[in-house]
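User: New here, any thoughts?
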Amino acid sequence: MSARAPYWLRKLLHNRVGLLGLIIVAVVILVAVLAPWVSPQDPNFTEMADKLIPPLTRGHLLGTDQLGRDILARIIWGSRISLGIGIYAVVVSGIIGVAVGLVAGFYGGWIDTIAMRIVDVQLSFPFILLALVLNGILGPGFRNLVITLIISSWVTYARLARGEVLAVRHKEFVLAAGALGMRDWRIMIRHILPNIITPVIVVSSLNLAQLIVAEAAISFLGFGVQPPQISWGNMLSEGRDYLINAWWLATFPGLALAFASLGINLTGDWLRDTLDPKLKL
C-alpha cells in the first residue's frame, strides 16, 4: 500500500478484523436495500402444505415456518425493519444528545446542572427496563419503538458531548473566536462541534448494535414491531414455541441478529482505532 493512500484505508487494510466487520456491515445493508430483488419469494406468502419444512428442502434454503412462509425471505425483509429502527434511533438520539451536551458544556451554570441531573436520573434506570416501560406506555409499532429507543439512548450522547465540550471550551481557538465577536451558536457549530464529533461517531457505531438487539428484545416480548411487519425480534418470538421440533425458526433469525451485531461492533472498534488521534502516534 502506497504511503500516499489515506490513513483510514491503510489502517483498514492492516486491520483484518476491521475489514471483516466492514464487509459484514456492507453485506447486511446491501441485503436490506436490495430485499425486493434478492428475496426468494414474498415473505408473507403462506402455504400450509409446506409448513415447518426443514432447511434445504423443496427449494427452501432455510426452511419454512408454522404457516409455510420462507424463513430466508423473512430474514431478508426483516433486516429492513431491524436496521431501520436502529439507524433512525441512532441518528435522532445522537442529534438530540449532542445538541444538549453542546449547550450544557458551553454555557455551564444552571443550564448544565439541570441537563446533567436529567441525564443522571435517566441513566439510573436500566436501559432495557426503561425502553420496555416507555414502549408499554406508547404502545407497540414501528414508530413508537423508534421513539422509545430515542428517549432511552439520547443521554449517552449528551454526557459524552458535554465532557468533550468541557475539554475544548477554553482552548485558544475558541477564546479567539469569542474575542472576535463571533456569536455563540457559530462558535459551537464551527469550532467546537468538529472537534468533538469523532468520539460521537465511534459511540454511535457501537450504540447501533445495542439498539438493534434492544429492538429484537422488545419485539420478542411482544411490545415492538407487530405482524404483518417483519423484524428479527418478532421472528424469534414466533419461533420460541418450536425450538424442539423446528429449531430453524428461531436459530436463523438469531444468527442474523448476531451476525449484524458482530459486524457493527467490529466496525466500531476499527473506527475507534482509526479516528482516535492518540492511537495515531
